Amino acid sequence: MQDAKAWLENIGKTIDAKDAKGFSEFCTEDGEFRFGNAETVTGRKNIEDYVAAFFGMIGSSSHEVLNYWENADGIVWEGRVTYTRLDGKVVPVNFTNIFYMDGELIKRYLIFIDNTPLFA
User: Which of 52, 68, 75, 99 has the highest local Cβ count within 10 Å?
Assistant: First the structure.
C-alpha cells in the first residue's frame, strides 16, 4: 500500500458520509466484517446492508487516525470516532481496527470498540 494513512482517512470519510456501498467496496467480494462483539458478516452485499442499518442508528460520525501499523499481511488502525447520536448528544469513542488484506482490498475487517456510550 502506497500511503496507508491516506487510505485509512479515505475509509473514515466514506463512513462519515454514510456511504454503505462505498464502504463495502473496500472489502473483497467474500470479505468478513465484525463490529465489536457482534456476529461476523460475510460477503460484500451483506456488509453493505449491515453498515447501512448501523448508519440509520446514528446522526453522524467523524473518524480520526491516531496511529497505524502495517506489514505485508495487514494494517492496524488506532483511532477515535466522534458520534453524534440521533438525540444530538456527541459521544467520542476510541477504537482499533485490524484489516487482513488481500491485495488492495480488505479480506477481514475487525473492529474492536466499546460502543456502550453510543446507545446509553
Answer: 99
